[in-house]
């Protein structure tokens, strides 16, 4: 039997972590009635709260039935009810807070055999990357699917899963080695360079972090880039002070190594600028010639000796095409005070005797922390040489991820990041076998927001466009440990035995403001607010920010209008 709500009364239950109080907001979404003779009666046997009142002396009594969530209520404590300007507020006393370990134990006992509730509770589990890694690794093979259209995104099942290196690892490594101890300088630099050379996005391997999976572009079905097989060169900005290949050296490289410009991993044919082709990557090794290219010393006021540069500041100018064999070595001549030396890379054996090692653009960007997942980036993760572009589903064109590129459309590291909130690990999408069903854009964002608040001790954040760097969302974390549930009230004329069973969901309370259409004067005020309050600044794709704003704004309906504004900002909640 359907439970109707002809008067359009809505309710929202709310409690805080470690708090023994449960609060009810009861309001009419279409009007602001005048409440008189307010009474609230608790009926624990039928799990509902009966609220009665009159709008004036002449009208009949209004009765509203509100379902009670699954909590431990103290039946001996009084029920406090009061009428405010546009809502009714009721307070109940709990025997135990909603997040008390004993309450969690009751859920684990599974006293009811309701399958749907068990699935709902499973969706509330924390977003833990280690759990995803273990679950995916235990499967025989995994395909990824688009959530919007159920299109299969991968060519073949993926069987190897590894953890994506953290973009903040250099700082931790420096702390571990100890920057003040000179004896570890050479050892740490060598280990860091070896670590960078080991970083890659090979075919058949899926790298995971808390918000995305990184796949080789060759593992994705229908993955096309306009410059996929073009050799990608790294041209740093002049102000960076890095030494680069001179135009003469680049011409020498194109002449001497003209046999190779791309390797088509799908058809197994090597294509060269001289028009010749081979049958496989292995023929590339049989030429027996090392590709040589010279680094010319720039004669500028800001030029410095190449030998004085650390290995991490050197960047190889040619990145192998997808599918090319790693055993192909490039020999580099570099000028030192002692003359010209030949350096071979990037094999591990050569690294042991190499006096200086060059890092490819993807390895250099990785060392500098620029190759994250683009879901949420910080100022130290940004680079003028790396541009993040959206990756859409080949079938429905829905946004499903992003990839880093430089001087073109080809991914820098040949890797594409797929956001967990937009993909599925099985069909049907969101089914019991879908390991990513609990991931949503809101939960991923709140998880990062709460973690940042703990690490940075900042509860004020400005979200900027990753491309334009302009502010789009101002958000203040008010309470990271709230529990809420909301819905429509029940008609007292309906079957009293038909009671909705509710569960409180973890949420965070926030104050927010949409800054995407702010005027110049408003933007100046916002920038002053950021500086004055030392607000945290993060960067996201504009599409993600717009979707977040829509979601946060839509959640305002869960509270009465008088409770949705504070200090010039809108009040809302987001699932945690």
Automatic annotation (TrEMBL):
Molecular functions (GO terms): cyclin binding; ubiquitin conjugating enzyme binding; ubiquitin protein ligase activity
Superkingdom in the source lineage: Eukaryota
GO BP field: proteasome-mediated ubiquitin-dependent protein catabolic process; protein autoubiquitination; protein monoubiquitination; protein polyubiquitination
Pfam families attached to this UniProt entry: HECT_2 (PF09814)
GO cellular component: cytosol; nucleus; ubiquitin ligase complex
Name listed for the protein in its UniProt record: Ubiquitin-conjugating enzyme E2C-binding protein
């Amino acid at each position: 039997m359907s439970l109707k709500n002809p008067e359009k009364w809505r309710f929202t239950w709310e409690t805080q972590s470690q708090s023994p109080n449960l609060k009810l907001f009861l309001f009419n979404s279409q009007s602001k009635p005048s409440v008189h003779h307010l009474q609230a009666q608790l009926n624990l046997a039928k799990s509902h709260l009966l609220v009665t009142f009159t709008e004036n002396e002449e009208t009949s009594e209004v009765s509203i039935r509100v379902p009670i969530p699954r909590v431990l209520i103290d039946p001996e404590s009084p029920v406090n009810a009061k009428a405010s300007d546009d809502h009714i507020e009721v307070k109940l006393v709990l025997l135990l807070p909603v997040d008390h370990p004993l309450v969690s134990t009751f859920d684990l006992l599974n006293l009811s055999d309701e399958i749907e509730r068990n699935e709902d509770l499973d969706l509330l589990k924390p977003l833990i990357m280690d759990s995803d890694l273990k679950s995916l690794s235990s499967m025989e093979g995994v395909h990824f699917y688009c959530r919007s259209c159920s299109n299969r995104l991968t060519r073949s099942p993926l069987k190897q899963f590894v953890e994506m290196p953290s973009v903040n690892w250099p700082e931790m490594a420096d702390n571990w080695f100890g920057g003040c101890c000179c004896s570890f300088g050479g050892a740490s630099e060598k280990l860091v360079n070896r670590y960078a050379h080991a970083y890659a996005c090979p075919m058949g391997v899926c790298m995971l972090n808390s918000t995305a999976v990184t796949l080789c572009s060759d593992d994705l079905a229908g993955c096309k880039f306009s410059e996929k097989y073009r050799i990608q060169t790294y041209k740093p900005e002049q102000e960076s002070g890095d030494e680069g290949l001179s135009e003469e050296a680049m011409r020498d490289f194109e002449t001497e190594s003209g046999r190779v410009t791309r390797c088509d991993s799908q058809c197994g044919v090597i294509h060269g600028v001289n028009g010749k082709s081979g049958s496989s990557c292995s023929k590339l090794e049989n030429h027996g010639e090392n590709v040589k290219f010279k680094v010319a010393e720039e004669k500028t006021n800001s030029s410095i000796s190449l030998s004085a540069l650390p290995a991490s500041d050197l960047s190889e100018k040619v990145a192998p095409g997808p599918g090319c064999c790693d055993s192909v070595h490039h020999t580099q001549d570099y000028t030192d005070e002692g003359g010209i030396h030949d350096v071979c890379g990037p094999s591990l054996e050569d690294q042991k005797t190499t006096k200086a090692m060059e890092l490819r653009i993807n390895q250099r960007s990785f060392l500098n922390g620029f190759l994250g997942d683009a879901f949420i980036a910080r100022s130290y993760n940004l680079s003028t040489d790396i541009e993040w572009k959206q990756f859409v589903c080949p079938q429905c064109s829905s946004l499903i991820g992003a990839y880093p590129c430089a001087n073109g459309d080809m991914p820098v590291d040949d890797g594409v990041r797929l956001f967990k909130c937009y993909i599925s690990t099985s069909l049907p999408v969101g089914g019991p076998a879908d390991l990513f069903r609990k991931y949503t854009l809101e939960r991923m964002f709140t998880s990062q927001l709460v973690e940042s608040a703990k690490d940075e001790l900042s509860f004020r954040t400005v979200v900027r466009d990753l491309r334009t760097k302009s502010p789009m969302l101002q958000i203040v974390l008010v309470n990271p440990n709230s529990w809420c549930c909301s819905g429509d009230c029940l008609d007292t004329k309906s079957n009293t035995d038909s009671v909705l069973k509710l569960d409180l969901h973890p949420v965070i309370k926030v104050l927010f403001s949409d800054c995407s259409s702010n005027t110049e004067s408003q933007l100046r005020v916002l920038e002053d607010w950021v500086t004055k309050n030392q607000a945290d600044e993060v960067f996201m794709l504009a599409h993600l920010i717009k979707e977040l704003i829509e979601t946060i704004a839509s959640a305002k309906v869960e509270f009465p209008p008088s409770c949705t504004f504070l200090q010039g900002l809108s009040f809302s909640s987001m699932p945690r």
